[in-house]
Automatic annotation (TrEMBL):
Site entry (Involved in tetramerization or stability of the tetramer), positions: C22
Residue numbers covered by motif NPA 1: 69-71
Molecular function terms from GO: water channel activity
Gene Ontology CC terms, in alphabetical order: plasma membrane
Gene: aqpZ
Name the record gives this protein: Aquaporin Z
Subunit-level organization: Homotetramer.
């Protein structure tokens, strides 16, 4: 598969992740106001992120590997599952796809006369944050630990699910469920990133508050992804692994 096709697949997949996941948070999580039974809440948002990864991995995994996440690309490289020369192009493609989705989501949200974007509010436009911008008021240290640990575990699940000896064809299901679980744990802490492209995609449109804290949601997931890739790479050393090129990793986000 040509690199151009891989990058297009990564852009579209990340677009879908941001539009579906962040879109559910912005448009549907609190639809109708507090107490409205039509709002999907935390559980619905968590499921939306998991479903975007699951569906996109099945759609694009055979083309690009279905990373849709810079932390995943870095982690797979550290774990020996991805070529170093493709890491930066993948990250650029992922960020681009996410930003396009953020723009589309903002255009949709602004179609409602009641839509308000306030950069001082935690979770504004599905953005990530810590301290006063954490949905639950969690500190920088708590946010850092959460993002590092959960991203590391995400990579371990991804690498285990896509191992040659794992049940064939089920990797996207395991990965999507893992991302759902991650959101159920961490939405109150950081509004859940574990994906720098997802964080950047909405921070650009959420205002100065989210942008001022965006650095954490690059550093922590990338560290976590590298840590998870290293740990699973060590665990799987000597096992029969896939020979990985971009189209053979079947994970995401």
């Amino acid at each position: 598969m040509s690199l151009i096709k891989k990058l297009v697949a990564e852009s579209i997949g990340t677009f879908w992740l941001v539009l579906g996941g962040c879109g559910s948070a912005v448009l549907a999580a609190n639809f109708g106001g507090d107490g409205n039974p039509l709002g999907i809440g935390f559980l619905g948002v968590a499921l939306a992120f998991g479903l975007t990864v699951l569906t996109a991995a099945y759609a694009f995994g055979h083309i690009s590997g279905g990373h849709f996440n810079p932390a995943v690309s870095v982690g797979l490289w550290v774990g020996g599952r991805f070529e170093a020369r493709e890491v930066l192009p993948y990250i650029i493609a992922q960020v681009f796809g996410g930003l396009v989705a953020g723009f589309v989501l903002m255009m949709i949200a602004q179609g409602n006369a009641d839509f308000v974007s306030d950069s001082s509010v935690a979770g504004n436009f599905a953005s990530n944050g810590f301290g006063e911008l954490s949905p639950g008021g969690y500190s920088l240290g708590a946010a850092l630990l959460t993002e590092v640990v959960l991203t590391a575990m995400f990579l371990i699940v991804i690498m285990g699910a896509t191992h040659k000896l794992a049940p064939a064809g089920f990797a996207p299901v395991a990965i999507g469920l893992a991302l759902t679980l991650i959101h159920l744990v961490s939405i109150p802490v950081t509004n859940t990133s574990v994906n720098p492209a997802r964080s950047t995609a909405v921070a650009v449109f959420a205002g100065s508050g989210a942008l001022s804290q965006l650095w954490l949601f690059w550093i922590a997931p990338v560290i976590g992804g590298a840590l998870g890739g290293f740990v699973y790479g060590w665990l799987g050393k000597g096992e029969v692994d896939r020979e990985v090129s971009g189209e053979q990793d079947l994970p995401e986000t």
